[in-house]
């Protein structure tokens, strides 16, 4: 494929579909869909790797960028575009670029926006694979990352160097639900000519819109709540149109981690129920947190929706609700944690989260096993820690399951 990049100059494809300023739930159901002449009601699935030109002249015009339109599904695909437009509208961003996974969204953002010699400041409490990517992969290409305590502004400040181009975080953190002050960190990033990048996987735009608090880019693992039913792997980056099209989309076209149209179609359907699901996940998690806190088997319970959470006020100023993830630190360390995991009957043992089905994970030996003891200590991954992704089952059944597993 030529260097000449027509899609970068095709504004009609980049602008989110015109949707009046309606409620988020309406946008989640309606945005991004432009019906074909067939008049279909559900979004069409364009399972095609390439697109046909009417003439040699048109093919040349598309490649030159003189005419907008599809060429090849690694570049653009109408179903993927519909998903991108819907998610961009939900996050309040100008543009969204869909990727093959959440990790490829992070990788593409870093590869597109950073060069050898640049520096990242990131929080300790990140998704385990993100730490591996920053610590083991990017360093081989000359991009260094300093890890700091998510909730400590002074440690972010102290870690910034003249070469710092990006601050990277998740809030709430995984799995100990520490909260970052987005407005303060956006101000800090901008004072140093750096970008604030927020992985908004846990909250989704239903509960938190980081761009409104000053973040520059939002990352998603669509695999989690955007799908919501544990079917497909995918990711996305949302932010300013020019930055994403000039840099991230160019990288994606050249490097290849584009989203499959089939997965985009599944995610589009997932977004239609996102508001309902996120409210239910949050209600169920809050119910369990209230019922479980203070139990003798539990040393600490982390859930930002509880008034007892040390950063509850900050969480409430940024989030509509606490979300579906809570974690328990059991007295009795790894034995107690594994016993709980093995005794649960309704919760599935899986590393995934954000599914309609409740899941349980032992971060220390699975999602975060590759972290060094020092790194684990920094982000609160102890042997006794168990992460629950609270699903959409009746919360009373979930409570019953947790009680029987804790008690026996
Ligand atoms: C799962 C996850 C990722 C990675 O997403 P994949 O779709 O699995 O590649 C990144 N960040 C967070 C917070 C996650 O939970």
Task: Explain the overall architecture.
The chain is of the alpha/beta class and 408 residues long. The protein has 2 domains: 17-272, Aspartate Aminotransferase, domain 2; 274-407, Alpha-Beta Complex (Aspartate Aminotransferase, domain 1). Helices cover 39% and strands 14% of the residues. The longest helix is centred in the C-terminal third of the chain and has 19 residues, at 274-292. It starts with 10 loop residues before the first helix and ends with a helix. It binds pyridoxal-5'-phosphate. Residues 101-103, 127, 129-130, 170, 174, 199, 201, 221, 223-224, 233, 235 line the site of pyridoxal-5'-phosphate. Pyridoxal-5'-phosphate is lined by residues 101-103, 127, 129-130, 170, 174, 199, 201, 221, 223-224, 233, 235.
- The CATH architecture of the largest domain can be named as 3-Layer(aba) Sandwich
Strand segment count: 12
Order of helices and strands: HHHHEHEHEHEHEHEEHHHEHEHEEHEH
Shape: globular
- Mean of pLDDT: 92
Between the first and last Cα atoms, what is the distance in angstroms?
Answer: 63 Å
Q: Which CATH class of the largest domain? A: Alpha Beta
Helical stretch count?
16
Catalogue the unreliable spans. 1-20
Number of domains: 2
Q: What do we call the CATH homologous superfamily of the largest domain?
A: Type I PLP-dependent aspartate aminotransferase-like (Major domain)
Strand content: 5-15%
CATH topology of the largest domain: Aspartate Aminotransferase, domain 2
What does the main sheet amount to? 7 strands, mixed
Assembly status? single chain
The ligands bound in this entry are: pyridoxal-5'-phosphate
- Which radius of gyration do the C-alpha atoms yield? 22 Å
Structural class assignment: alpha/beta
- Give the strand order of the largest sheet, numbering strands 1, 2, ... along the chain: 1-7-6-5-4-2-3
């Amino acid at each position: 494929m030529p260097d000449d990049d027509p899609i970068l100059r095709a504004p009609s494809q980049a602008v989110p579909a015109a949707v009046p300023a309606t409620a988020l739930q309406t946008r989640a159901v309606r945005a991004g869909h432009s019906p074909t002449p067939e008049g279909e009601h559900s979004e069409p699935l364009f399972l095609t790797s390439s697109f046909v030109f009417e003439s040699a002249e048109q093919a040349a015009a598309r490649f030159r960028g003189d005419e907008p339109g599809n060429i090849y599904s690694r570049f653009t695909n109408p179903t993927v575009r519909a998903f991108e437009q819907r998610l961009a509208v939900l996050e309040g961003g100008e543009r969204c670029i869909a990727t093959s996974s959440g990790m490829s969204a992070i990788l593409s953002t870093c590869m597109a926006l950073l060069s050898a010699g640049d520096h990242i400041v990131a929080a300790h409490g990140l998704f385990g694979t993100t730490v591996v990517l920053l610590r083991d992969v990017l360093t081989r290409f000359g991009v260094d990352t300093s890890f700091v305590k998510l909730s400590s502004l002074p440690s972010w400040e102290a870690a910034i160097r003249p070469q710092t181009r990006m601050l990277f975080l998740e809030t709430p953190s995984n799995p100990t639900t520490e909260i970052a002050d987005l407005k303060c960190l956006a101000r800090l990033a901008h004072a140093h000519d750096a970008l604030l990048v927020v992985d908004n996987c846990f909250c989704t735009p239903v509960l938190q819109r980081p761009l409104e608090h000053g973040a520059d880019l939002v990352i998603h693992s669509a695999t989690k709540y955007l799908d919501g039913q544990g079917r497909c792997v995918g990711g996305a980056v949302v932010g300013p149109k020019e930055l994403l099209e000039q840099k991230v989309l160019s990288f994606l076209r050249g490097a290849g981690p584009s989203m499959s149209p089939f997965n985009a179609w599944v995610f589009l359907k997932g977004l239609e129920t996102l508001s309902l699901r996120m409210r239910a996940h949050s209600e169920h998690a809050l119910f369990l947190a209230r019922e479980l806190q203070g139990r003798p088997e539990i040393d600490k319970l982390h859930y930002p929706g509880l008034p007892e959470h040390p950063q509850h006020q900050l969480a409430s100023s940024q989030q509509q609700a606490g979300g579906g993830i809570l974690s328990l630190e059991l007295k009795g360390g790894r034995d107690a944690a594994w016993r709980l995991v093995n005794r649960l009957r309704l919760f599935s043992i899986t590393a995934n989260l954000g599914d309609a089905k409740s899941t349980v994970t032992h971060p220390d030996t699975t999602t975060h096993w590759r972290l060094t003891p020092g790194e684990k200590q920094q982000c609160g991954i102890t042997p006794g820690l168990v992460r629950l992704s609270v699903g959409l089952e009746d919360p009373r059944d979930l409570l019953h399951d947790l009680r029987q597993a804790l008690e026996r």
